[in-house]
């Protein structure tokens, strides 16, 4: 099987690597977002008939892997690959098309408001309520771990009175919407949204029937694979930096990379990273082909990335010694980011349980 990139994909990868190599740690988030828009990255994952460039999960993963290598905390994943993808999956309407145009141009910062307790929840447990009224809908409930404290619109997934999930567009300045910011360990931020009878018009409701639940399933599977690609980029960067450090750091008059025990540990890091890359390719294929076993394949991918990513990061810290947790080197930042990736959309332990539930669902209890 040939996994080599097309010419267009290779150009995209080269463009991402050049940008990330020149990126400064203290880059302004608003300026960075506009650069993403100018480079066409915000429009890349969307279909051409929606005004995008028709990219697939492969192109999304290339971009996420590049961001992972640079230890970036940009909100591309949450704003474009989760909220934007859910918006694009909604039935065509003037409201949807207008929002998509603004998202792809970088003029609108969109964020998904999904979880109500923790990252590992499944949609069937969400209970934020949407009630019809004469003017449209009223939303009540609490959404936690909403990515990015600074956003223009949120896609709030709530349960209607008929029991079905739906997605609603809610402006950040809506009456009755309270936002409580919280900083996360990797330097990114999120917020808790408290909806106290927030009123939205009828056009803010994006789906009909049970269409939202089906769209959510596909969006979250693709988003999980893209998140794993970011972790892959971080793992590759950790391996690269650790090997380079071992070549240059001297102890007892020789480079520590000449010590066989440390060589074995770095080989283990390489083997773990390559295992995750193989799983990442399998996950991409499962999503692209809509494989019947895609849910368990993606769960297995996220499990391995969570487990191996943290192991590789901890090994990198150990091999760097005290420098591994200093702000002078990015090693500690990679560790913190990989820990957040592990938690997001369900930790390794949760993913292992999901894998078992799908793989062995037909076996007698």
Automatic annotation (TrEMBL):
Presence of the UniProt keyword Flavoprotein in the record: yes
Keyword annotations: FAD, Flavoprotein, Oxidoreductase
Domain Acyl-CoA dehydrogenase/oxidase N-terminal: 6-106
Cross-referenced CDD domains: ACAD (cd00567)
Necessary cofactors: FAD
SUPFAM superfamilies noted in UniProt: Acyl-CoA dehydrogenase C-terminal domain-like (SSF47203), Acyl-CoA dehydrogenase NM domain-like (SSF56645)
Domain Acyl-CoA dehydrogenase/oxidase C-terminal: 209-354
A molecular-function term among this protein's GO annotations: acyl-CoA dehydrogenase activity
Pfam families from the UniProt entry: Acyl-CoA_dh_1 (PF00441), Acyl-CoA_dh_N (PF02771)
Keyword Flavoprotein on entry: yes
Recorded family membership: Belongs to the acyl-CoA dehydrogenase family.
Protein name: Acyl-CoA dehydrogenase family protein
